Amino acid sequence: MLGALVIVVAAILHAVGLNAGARAQDALVVFKLALIAGLVVAGGIALAVKGLPAPSPGLPEGFEPVPFAVTCVWVSFAYSGWNAASYLAGELHDARRTLTRVLLAGTWITAAAYLALNLVFVFAAPRAELAGQAEVGVLAARSLGGDGAAMVLAALVALAGVTSVTAMTMAGPRVYARMAEDGFLPRTIATTRGHRAAIALQVVLALALLWSAPFQDLMTWTGWTLWAFSALTIVGLVRVRLREGALAVPVPGWPWVPALYLVVSASIGAFSFTRDPAAGGAVLGALGIAALLYFALPGSRRARGSSNS
Question: In sequence order, what DSSP letters do the residues of 208-237 get, joined into one string?
């Protein structure tokens, strides 16, 4: 019920107008970053005073690729918000310059914030206490600062979820509106004021997902889907680069960076599939149905016609 309430409230904020939704999103993200910074500083001070925990004997050594791959799928959600600005490109002044700065800054800030926070988690408690536990952050925070620190960490996790909802409520409807303009969704979705029809569609889809499966299953399914589409995006970038050349499509680290990303993505997807073939098959089946629908819709025929002209 609480998750549904967050989705509906976020939709109302963004339906009121872009400025209201953006201000709410900015305030939530600033507060979240302040909480992360506070936890990192407090955790560092606590570790300096208490010292690092003693090594835990008896833990198995070695690298297990399958659990690591599944974890990478979940970790990818930490990076699923920084690129939301790309969906607003049509509403930005000097989009090329602004997007470049926003995407680079968002990537580095996200990486630095979560890496620092997880370093505190790793050193906050003996590994034996954290191994196999779902709420690693809460356990680590409790080890450093008692129940009060654990409550702050739990609030941070909840706030991170809220900011993700508000970010996607801002970005998702703009994707639907563009799809409607291109003929993949009903035209009315693109013509309503403030993307309100698209926001309503976002609410329906989000609530359907929320009520369809347990949270961890949703994380896995949507994580695999996001991972697959991020890899397909890089495939599209490579295709455009090969067709139009380096001057039109400059790619730093070409061709090694895109190749590395695709190899890592394929490896993580393959290992994750071996962990849960049923869920992986469901995701692949959904993607297959989506591909069939794509080629059957008018927008696809127009796109193929323009690319061949």
Answer: HHHTTS-HHHHHHHHHHHHHHHHHHHHHHH
Phi, psi of 92 (to 5 degrees): -100, 145
The pair of three-digit structure tokens given for residue 155, joined into one six-digit string: 């609030």
pLDDT tens string 180-237: 888 888 888 877 776 888 899 999 999 998 888 787 777 777 778 888 888 888 899 9
Tens digit of pLDDT for each residue in 150-161?
888 888 888 888
Task: Name the token pair of 267.
Answer: 């490896």
pLDDT of the residue at 302: 59
Greatest alpha-carbon pair distance for the chain in Å reads 69
Percentage of the chain lying above the pLDDT 70 cut: 87
Identify the three-state secondary structure at position 292.
helix
Calpha distance 81→215 (Å, rounded): 19
Where does residue 61 rank: exposed (0-12), middle (13-18), buried (19+ CB within 10 A)? exposed
**For the whole model, what pTM was predicted?**
0.76
Residue type at 201 in one-letter notation: L
Is 15 buried (19+), middle (13-18) or exposed (0-12) by CB count in 10 A?
buried
- Tell which residue, 98, 91, 73, 101, has the closest CA to residue 14: 91
What is the residue-averaged pLDDT of the chain? 80
Question: What number of other Cβ atoms are within 10 A of residue 92's Cβ?
Answer: 14
215, two tokens: 């949270």
Are 302 and 179 in contact, with CB atoms under 8 Å apart?
no
DSSP for residue 157:
H
